[in-house]
């Protein structure tokens, strides 16, 4: 039986209680091994916990903040960073010899990111300046997150795609929250990841151009109306934009064959162009991605392709895989339910949907919701996606 | 009150249904075993016509006249599912008006009726599972917040699929949305297909006349079916949903009129006739178009266009 209890809330409260007990009995001397173990438990609680929305963040941040009290004192007194002290859990978890996995480090980075953003946001509300202790703590959290992601990339190079999205999203949020110093720090810190921008920068530029073209196609959309034929054809503008998107995504994959975000988009574009056979090849490739979000999208689109091709059993398999890949998704249980209904299995269709509502414990995020996200305006959903990718 | 209640007339061609993927010849109905129920509203202008009996109705299943077993009004308990749009467009006073409206609809229910509450923005949330009208239902409404995009079709599909599993009830869905779909995976046709396999009556409550949905950016953007699937794009899909289920579209114009609109919808539903018959002379499987008219009396009958077996 888990010491954390059976629900995310219980786990979080159990952790908070453990912190209180620890703080009562703590002395200035800290057992480093215990320290790191508790830190790991915190990350585990975070990964199992409820979504960090406004209503819940105080609880998680409260626990997290309590844990970081010594760090805060240290920071204010010595003007240094968490990562600068190798005895601190962040640095010790991130170092090459630790047993922490890339997934754990990524989750830890998101916890610190949440803490940072929460502090920045609250500071903005009350109008305190960036030199205040809360600003320094926010900076420390940001630094911790960057350190942890660096460690994750060392363990698994494919984590870099996550790190790049994290950097862009958090930079945008810091800008929106009017925290220019922290934004500049993040940009500067990102220089440490120069290998990220060197590897595949041209591929990402092509991908970005493809995304813009795909968005243009989406807005141009279908032709529809009472006088049009039933087929509701894609508009000429959309058709042209899809062709541009196809070329850019294909170019991105040629430049960086490991960049499977491009593969899933290329697959969708090919499906819209009715090149189903080719689309399936791209999507099958994307279904092997490290990112659960990409695998999920690939399975969903493979299901759609199979369904369109009349292969309902195959579609059901893909939707089942999607549900298993990312159990907080909404589209997969709906697609599964709908396909079951089409197969005449109405009771199972209802059960598939009920299962979704029963198990998701208030955490829901569908990668489809950020599939065509605008990096300048959709920062909230993009942050949600980063969070969801560390849930378990 | 100037709440406009617009009856949706079945002016669209009855299209062919894609049958479940099964093999072999469709079976015939087993006489005396398979009972079909049709929920029907009879109006004469703005007035609801009451006091009708089985002899007053002419019902045809697939063009074949049927013998009606019974007609009842307000004697069968209702299972009402409230599906409420809580996307960012309802932030502010509209959300408060919506909660009050939903509470008013619950208050219309009888003690043996049941209710469930779905809310939807990007996420579709089962806020209250099926249960008797109670303070807990009102509490569930009170906890709803607004924000995010609109998964209208996903929510509509869920509302029709999560029907009350207690037998012998009249399924009724009140679907509120103040805008178009922006984030569903399922396309409109999936919802219409679900509706054809359901006996639920859908009342659509909205603040603006729905528009055509043409963008590719939402859901997969990919047609799941080859061909047109039998759903003509001559009417916005969400209106078609109400039409094909025998429901109505209610345009409240302003959010402070939602309360009257919801209460009116719930009250009107209780005045609908529940017609039962055992089909004869028709195949059991596939799509069964239904036509219900009055014999020798004035009035318009609003009923679902058919059912799928």
Question: What would your notes on this structure say?
Answer:
The complex is a heterodimer of chains A (392) and B (309). By secondary structure, chain A is mainly α. Chain A has two domains: 8-197, no CATH class; 201-380, Alpha Horseshoe (Serine Threonine Protein Phosphatase 5, Tetratricopeptide repeat). Chain A has 19 helices and no strands. The longest helix of chain A has 25 residues, at 102-126. Chain A is globular and about 55 Å long. Chain B is of the alpha+beta class and 309 residues long. Chain B has a domain at 78-217 and 228-270: von Willebrand factor, type A domain (Rossmann fold). Chain B is 21% helix and 28% strand. Chain B has six helices and 16 strands. In chain B, the strands form three sheets. A seven-stranded mixed sheet of chain B has the order 1-12-11-10-7-8-9, sandwiched between helices. In chain B, strands 2, 3, 6, 13 and 15 form a five-stranded antiparallel sheet that branches. Chain B has a four-stranded antiparallel sheet with strand order 5-4-14-16, with no helix packed on it. The termini of chain B are far apart. The model of chain B is unreliable at 1-27, 29-33 and 225-232 (pLDDT under 50). Chains A and B meet through α11, α13, α15, α17 and α18 of A and β9, α3 and α4 of B.
């Amino acid at each position: 039986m888990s010491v954390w209890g059976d629900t995310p809330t219980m786990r979080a409260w159990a952790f908070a209680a453990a912190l209180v007990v620890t703080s009562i009995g703590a002395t200035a001397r800290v057992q480093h091994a215990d320290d790191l173990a508790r830190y790991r438990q915190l990350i585990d609680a975070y990964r199992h916990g409820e979504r960090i929305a406004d209503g819940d963040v105080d609880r998680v941040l409260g626990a997290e903040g309590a844990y970081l009290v010594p760090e805060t004192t240290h920071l204010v007194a010595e003007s240094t960073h968490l990562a600068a002290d190798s005895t601190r859990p962040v640095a010790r978890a991130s170092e090459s010899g630790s047993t922490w996995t890339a997934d754990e480090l990524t989750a830890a980075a998101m916890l610190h990111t949440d803490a940072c953003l929460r502090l920045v946001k609250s500071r903005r509300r009350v109008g305190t300046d960036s030199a205040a202790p809360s600003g320094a703590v926010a900076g420390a959290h940001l630094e911790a997150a960057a350190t942890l992601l660096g460690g994750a990339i060392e363990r698994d190079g494919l984590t870099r795609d996550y790190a790049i999205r994290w950097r862009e999203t958090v930079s945008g949020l810091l800008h929106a929250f009017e925290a220019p110093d922290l934004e500049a720090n993040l940009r500067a810190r990102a220089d440490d990841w120069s290998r990220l921008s060197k590897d595949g920068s041209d591929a990402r530029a092509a991908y970005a151009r493809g995304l813009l073209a795909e968005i243009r196609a989406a807005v141009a959309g279908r032709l529809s109306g009472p006088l049009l034929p039933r087929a509701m054809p894609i508009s000429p503008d959309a058709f042209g934009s899809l062709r541009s998107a196809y070329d850019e995504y294909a170019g991105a994959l040629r430049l960086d064959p490991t960049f499977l975000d491009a593969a899933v988009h290329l697959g969708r574009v090919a499906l819209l162009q009715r090149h189903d056979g080719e689309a399936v090849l791209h999507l099958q490739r994307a279904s092997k991605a490290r990112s659960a979000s990409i695998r999920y999208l690939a399975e969903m689109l493979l299901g759609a392709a199979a369904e369109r091709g009349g292969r309902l059993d195959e579609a059901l398999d893909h939707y089942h895989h999607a549900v298993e890949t990312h159990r907080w998704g909404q589209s997969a249980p709906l697609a599964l339910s709908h396909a079951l209904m089409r197969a005449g299995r109405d009771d199972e269709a209802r059960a598939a949907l009920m299962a979704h509502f029963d198990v998701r414990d208030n955490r829901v995020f569908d990668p489809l919701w950020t599939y065509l996200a605008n990096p300048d305006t959709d920062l909230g959903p993009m942050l949600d996606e980063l969070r969801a990718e560390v849930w378990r | 009150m100037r709440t406009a209640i617009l009856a949706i007339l079945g002016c669209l061609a009855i299209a062919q249904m894609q049958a479940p993927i099964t093999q072999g010849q469709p079976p015939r109905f087993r006489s005396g075993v398979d009972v079909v129920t049709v929920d029907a509203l009879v109006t004469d202008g703005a007035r609801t016509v009451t006091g009708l009996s089985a002899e007053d109705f002419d019902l045809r299943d697939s063009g074949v006249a049927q013998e009606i077993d019974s007609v009842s009004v307000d004697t069968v308990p209702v299972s009402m599912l409230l599906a409420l749009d809580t996307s960012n467009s309802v932030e502010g006073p509209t959300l408060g008006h919506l909660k009050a409206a939903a509470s008013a609809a619950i208050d219309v229910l009888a003690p043996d009726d049941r209710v469930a509450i779905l809310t939807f923005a990007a996420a579709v949330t089962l806020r209250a599972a099926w249960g008797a009208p109670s303070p807990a239902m009102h509490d569930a409404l009170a906890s709803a917040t607004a924000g995010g995009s609109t998964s209208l079709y996903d929510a509509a599909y869920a509302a029709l699929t999560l029907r009350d599993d207690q037998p012998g009830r009249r399924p009724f869905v009140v679907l509120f949305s103040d805008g178009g779909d922006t984030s569903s995976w399922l396309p409109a046709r999936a919802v219409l297909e679900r509706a054809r396999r359901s006996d639920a009556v859908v009342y659509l409550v909205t603040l603006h006349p729905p528009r055509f949905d043409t963008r590719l950016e939402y859901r997969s953007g990919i047609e799941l079916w080859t061909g047109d699937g039998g759903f003509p794009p001559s009417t916005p899909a969400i209106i078609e949903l109400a039409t094909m289920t025998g429901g109505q579209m209610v345009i409240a114009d302003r959010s402070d009129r939602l309360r009257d609109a919801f209460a009116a919808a719930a009250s009107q539903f209780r005045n609908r006739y529940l017609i039962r018959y055992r089909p004869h002379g028709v195949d059991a499987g596939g799509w069964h178009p239904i036509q219900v008219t009055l014999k020798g009396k004035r009035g318009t009958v609003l009923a679902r266009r058919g059912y799928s077996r």
